[in-house]
Amino acid sequence: MIILAIKTDQPESEFWLLKDHKTLGHIKYLAHQNLARTIHLQISKLLKNQNLDWPDIEGLVAYKGPGSFTGLRIGLTVANSLAYSLKIPIIGEKGDDWLESGVTKLQANKNDKIVIPFYGAEPHITQAKK
Q: Does the structure show a pLDDT above 80 at 80?
């Protein structure tokens, strides 16, 4: 099973391409405020480095938090959209072993269908200015 893993909770975003539990490729780059403009380019580069294309992805594992509100929102939107459009399973995990746990769940035919972010804290909403 070819698996794409996405982690966008920090200014440095990371993407893995795995065949089952074996890493085929890994990209880590300083995305910061350019994540929305660069995420697809980085995933495409990762795929091309392995002579693969988007339809070759058979499952997704996404880090769901805690972390940056914007980073998680962008990464999980892309992950959920890919899972939906490619009709493949998706697993969302948190914690230090998120990747291993997610791959194991995919191999057990689990599917979250949609991953909801976990921000780790209540939102800090400022009062409206009068």
A: yes
Paired residues of 2 in beta bridges: 19
Q: What is the distance of C-alpha 58 from the center of its chain?
A: 14
pTM, rounded to two decimals? 0.91
- Separation of alpha carbons 105 and 116, rounded Å: 17
Residue 127, in any domain of the structure: no
Number of domains comprising the chain: 1
In angstroms, the CA 53 to CA 35 distance is 21
3-state per-residue secondary structure call for the chain: CEEEEEECCCCEEEEEEEECCEEEEEEEEECHHHHHHHHHHHHHHHHHHCCCCHHHCCEEEEECCCCCHHHHHHHHHHHHHHHHHHCCCEEEECCCCHHHHHHHHHHCCCCCCCCCCCCCCCCCCCCCCC
Range of the domain at 61: 2-107
pLDDT digits (tens, 9 = 90+) for 82-118: 999 999 999 999 999 999 999 999 999 999 999 999 9
Spatial distance between the Cα atoms of 60 and 62, rounded to a whole number of angstroms: 6
